[in-house]
Specification:
Blueprint: H1 7-53, H2 56-72, H3 76-90, H4 97-116, H5 119-124
Helix pairs in contact: 1-2, 1-4, 2-3, 3-4
Length: 137
C-alpha cells in the first residue's frame, strides 16, 4: 500500500528535523522525538475509548496535544487531521467524530515508521519509496 505522505509533507518534516537537529543537537532531537512518539501513541490509543465514553473535553485536550506535537515536527498532515477532530468537537458535531478519529489514527500509523527511523535516515528517505507497514490501512 502506498504511503499517505505527500512530497510537501515529507519536505516540511525534513526541514523541521534539520532545524531541530541544528538547534538541539542529535541527542536533543532524539529525546524529543522519542517523547513525541511515546506520548502520541498513548494518546492515539486512548481516542477510541474517549469517543466511546463520550468524554469530549478529554478528547479535545488529547487531540490538541497531538496537533501541537505534530507541529513541532512539521507534520502538517497530522496537524490537519487533528484540527478536523478539534473543530468537530468545538461545533458539537459528535456524529461525525468516529471517521475523523479513524482518519487521524490511520495517518499517524502511516507516519510512524518514518518517525521511528533514525533522524538522519528520515531526512534522506525518498518519499516515493516510503510505504506503510504491511496490513496497515
Amino acid at each position: 500500500m502506498e504511503s499517505m505522505q505527500g512530497a510537501d509533507d515529507i519536505e516540511c518534516f525534513r526541514r523541521a528535523i534539520e532545524r531541530l537537529s541544528r538547534d538541539l543537537g542529535p541527542e536533543g532531537l532524539a529525546e524529543i522525538l522519542d517523547s513525541y512518539l511515546t506520548d502520541t501513541r498513548t494518546r492515539m490509543d486512548s481516542l477510541p475509548g474517549l469517543l466511546e465514553a463520550g468524554d469530549h473535553p478529554a478528547m479535545a485536550r488529547c487531540v490538541h496535544s497531538i496537533r501541537g506535537g505534530s507541529a513541532i515536527f512539521g507534520l502538517q498532515e497530522l496537524e490537519r487531521a487533528s484540527l478536523a477532530v478539534e473543530s468537530a468537537l468545538k461545533r458539537s458535531e459528535t456524529r461525525g467524530l468516529a471517521p475523523l478519529v479513524d482518519a487521524l489514527r490511520d495517518r499517524y500509523r502511516a507516519w510512524e515508521p518514518l518517525l521511528r527511523a533514525e533522524p538522519g535516515e528520515s531526512v534522506r528517505r525518498d518519499p516515493g519509496r516510503s510505504k506503510t507497514p504491511e496490513g496497515s490501512p
